[in-house]
Amino acid sequence: MLKKILLFLMVSLTVLSADDYAYSREWLNLLYYEKSILGYKSPAMEDGFFVTAQGRTDPQAEYAESLRLVLENDRQFKTKFPLRYKYIARYNNLKYEPVVQANTDVKRVFLAYPSRYMRNSASMFGHLFLLLETDSGILDSQILHFVGDSGDSTGFDFAWKGLTGKFEGRFIQEPYYTKIQEYNFLESREILFYTIKLSPEQIENLQLHYLEMQNTFFWYYYINKNCAFFIGRFLDVVLDSDVIDVPLYLIPAQATEKFREADLLADERLVPSITKVFDQWYSDLNLVQKGQVQATLFYPEDNSAIIQDEELFSIVEYMLRSNKESANLLSESDLYDQLQQFHLPEMWLYLPATENIKKLYTQSAGLWGSTEYNWGGFFNLVHFSDYEQFNELEINTIRLGGLSVEKLADRTLRYDLDLAEINNILQFNMIFPTWSWSARSMFSYHENWSTNQEAYTGHAFNLRNWGLLYGMIGINYANYDTLGKRELDRLDLFSGLKLGWRRNITKNLKLRVAYEHKYNTDYQSAELIYKYYDLLGKLTCLNSHDDTIYQIGLECLF
Length: 558
Hints:
Blueprint: H1 2-15, H2 18-22, H3 25-30, E1 34-36, E2 39-41, H4 59-71, H5 75-80, H6 82-91, E3 106-114, E4 129-134, E5 137-149, H7 155-164, E6 167-175, H8 176-186, E7 191-196, H9 200-212, E8 218-220, H10 227-236, H11 252-261, E9 265-271, H12 274-283, H13 287-298, H14 310-321, H15 324-330, H16 334-342, E10 364-370, E11 375-384, E12 395-407, E13 413-425, E14 436-446, E15 448-462, E16 468-481, E17 486-506, E18 509-518, E19 521-532, E20 535-543, E21 548-557
Antiparallel strand pairs: 1-2, 3-4, 3-7, 4-5, 5-6, 6-8, 7-9, 10-11, 10-21, 11-12, 12-13, 13-14, 14-15, 15-16, 16-17, 17-18, 18-19, 19-20, 20-21
Helix pairs in contact: 1-4, 10-11
Protein name: Protein DUF4105
Pfam families: DUF7843, Lnb_N
Domain DUF7843: 24-89
């Protein structure tokens, strides 16, 4: 009886100060509370994430009950919510007796940013996950990420549910080896790794918090409450200050930038795409060498296919191991014995770390003027530019929410809205027969509304790393000519053709020449692009049967 009275007094006295901690940054972050004019609410959806019926909307009641369970030494609470128990014990100067242990082999945590994957709309802006590196090395480590379960949804249903938050999102762990294989080879993504500045205790807290997150799910929204948002909020729980808020929209590159600006990233590593490494190497070969490579990859059981180049052995080994059917044939051939003799490192290990952490560009703005006495300005709400990595030949851009204003020669204004413009022009070869494609949806207003909706597909070829040649066919449904910047007589369906060539002249200068047949008009164009830090200077010449126009522009990436 005396014990119960003492416990009652302890709880009563402690609850008097519950307001202080129940509305503290630490407690609100632990349960993912968000504040609005109506009060607090957690987006965690399962009742098992809370210990009270009103826990989703009442931080004070949730804390008071959690404290009571800690004072009663409730083992189930300590097991289910190990980090809440630790924080409560520390705040109230209680003896901390954990019943759950974190993996002490985890020594470092990386923030990983795989670049965009253009074949999946949900991954078109990249991904964000954590890599927990152990003493055994990266290959035996786990990744931790937030994933939306789309089930069997496809097409419009997939897009609609992702935009309206109809997919369940959960925190999960997976082996690093299988995920890097998927990203780096199957999806041809480059991956940036950043060492997060975490103390040993913060690394322990991060693992304890992951156990708590197995008790709930969150609704997944493409635009803001996505992998980037929840990985950021997850890290906020163990950091000393908040990095991620609730934005109107958030993409992985922007979340990464927030951590860089907060000085929480120690260094940067790059894992190059194995397919991109192979493409560049393959494009330098002559026809005989290419035939030998094809025989090795497509017919590994043919022991006559012998390759002498050590770099190729390493690439071929990785590619064969990444394909189950080829791997089975490989193990039965003499080629496997040849590969084993080299003992080469795997191609997917990251490059050396650098403390020079590059900024990730996600927006752009600029000005331009032409010899037609037209000039204008533009801003792109989301812009992934292929000019970030200026030396690459491939054209891989995403532009969303593009707004522009043009002053015409007669002093009237034209307003353009680009809902989306996507270019995915990748080099084709016999090993990776990749299709290229582009799409654009835009509207224009000048006295009347006009539009251009287009889709193109084709192939691009790397001319021995000297230039990229591409050809594409497609359609335009339009009454506005985006090249000649003119309104058409009527809204109609047009067939189209694009032929282009792109070449790196120096490390800061590119040349692009193109022929396009669009809107029943032939256009020839040439463009020089010069990059100086975050600025792009562009000089363009556009020729048609009506006129030749010269345009100069300046674009800032940020």
